[in-house]
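Work through this:
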Amino acid sequence: MTSAAPAPAQHTTNARACQGHGSNWCSTAESPNRAQVAQASQVPSSPHGHPLVSSVSTCANRPFGSSVTTPLDLALPALALLRLPHWHKDLAMNLECLTKLCNSLLGNLDPLYMMESGIQKPRIQLTGFKNQEKKTLVELLLRLDCVFLDSEQYRNCTHLIAKQPCKSEKFLAACAAGKWILTKDYIINSAESGRWLDETTYEWGYKIETGSHYSPQMQSAPKRWREELTRSGATGAFHRWKVVLLVVKGDKRRDSLTRLLEAGKATICSVLNTPKNITHILTNNSALNQEKAKRLFGAPYYPVRYLGSYLLEASIFKEHRS
């Protein structure tokens, strides 16, 4: 079979030879655009009844980057790359080579194609894990295609793996940003499968543990916020907040509170240059005169711990909105 035309100079050509039954036919051409991908799903000679092809066709309507992209999600671009007018003549051989190609595509895609199609490596952070348990999870992560962010601070991850629900900066910020917050089984099972699995059943809140030390509201907070932000189209849990942060000088929590508010898309206003329509005054100063602060800024006062309550307790969120 004749391979597709070589890619233009500005593209990086990705080639992976699939040695099967003496055939070498998996050289790839220019990265396909969305129109080419959609067209590939309509190739008349493709055996649409085969389970793989049925699954591939379903991917045509799924936006790239909507979740962690799996090799199967990339089977449709693979069809566009390979141009297979007579692939059904040796179905077993072609499926084998196609599978190999799909398994390699995530690590070998043209960076330009990745940017255009929205495919990004998962950015993973951990919270609550220590010592050997953390070391084991990091070793498993190294087997998977991702960026591991080893930091005590929230770093705009796409996925947070949490040992348990908690009030750490990373847990609260990921809730506020509507990110996936998952159990450690997500890493373990993905590493065993050799690819990233669907997140849904691993999300904190998918199953509520009865008799747990953590309330059902706290357990379900990650799922609740991710679904709320998706449903409403809001950019974050604090997206309409204009906040004055009054924190005692020298308090180390100020930077952490700032990162949390920014993750939830709050606007943080300077005390010296305060605009109108302030919505929240957040402070850790119990000696602050609330009435005086309210008169000064024209907004209600909240202790900084309110942020955790707002994110983790559904009743507080509903009360705030009413």
Notes: Residues 91-108 form the longest helix (18 residues). The CA atoms of residues 45 and 85 lie 6 Å apart. The chain is about 40% helix and 10% strand.
